[in-house]
Amino acid sequence: MNILTFDIEDWYCNCVYTDLDWEKYECRLYEGVDMILDELDKRNIKATCFCLGWIADYHPSIIKKIYDAGHHIGCHSYQHQLLTGFDEKQFLEDTRKAKSALESVIGDVVDAYRAPAWTIGYDNAWVLEKLAEMGFVYDCSIFPAKHSFGGFPNYGKAEPAIIRFDNGSFIKEFPVSTKVMLGNHFVFSGGGYFRFFPLRSIIRWTKQQDYSMCYFHTQDFDTGQPNVSKDLPLVRRFKTYYGIKGAFEKFKSFLDEFEFVNIREADQMIDWKEKTLK
Ligand SMILES: [Zn+2]
Prior knowledge:
Blueprint: E1 2-8, H1 29-42, E2 48-51, H2 53-58, H3 60-68, E3 72-75, H4 88-106, E4 112-113, H5 126-133, E5 138-139, E6 161-164, E7 170-173, E8 179-181, E9 184-186, H6 191-196, H7 199-207, E10 212-216, H8 234-241, H9 247-257, H10 263-269, E11 276-277
Parallel strand pairs: 1-2, 1-10, 2-3, 4-5, 5-7, 6-11
Antiparallel strand pairs: 6-7, 8-9
The structure holds zinc ion.
């Protein structure tokens, strides 16, 4: 099972920037989203797109276009602030605001969530129960390896699971897939990792897995985005800009190799009775 997801955010939404006054920046998403939608349409792939609530408020036609093309709309917070900096009240406010902004644009329920920068870990795993309370059916925020902002290295096996809470509610978790090498989990199926590793290796590793969760952003392919590397720490600079040139061709070749589904389609393919995790 290969799941294809996108995080719909723009170049200025990077979580290392503290400036949240985004209206002044050039929006590159119109072009970036069109490029992706064209390629998905050619291959009849319906992806899950985790979108920022802010984009729904300020550039609603982008979200509407993705939805009208038949893709599954998920929530990626309001303005990409790290959940590790939120208490419960702030998290609930941010998520409700984002969910309702997205739902009012598409006129449909938003049932899937992905945290900004993979910031659900052991210390704030309470977030998952709150997501279920808010009506989310799916979470795709677990990055079962080390990550500079978040990650959940002790999560366990990177595969879909039902996480049940004491009050009887539950959420279906679809973590990022990893490759285990010498006992360590590492991610290769999205963002900077996809740009970094050779395509041949990525294809081989993907074929070795029963479950693969891929994630991309328009910025992974956008050679025309403003370069803000002087504002970034060295490691982040590398992760943000490495391999952008040529990444879109690589992405298209990757799409040609596999069949892809979105989260809702994946849900239908899983025998959950076999997979319940307490
Ligand atoms: Zn993001």
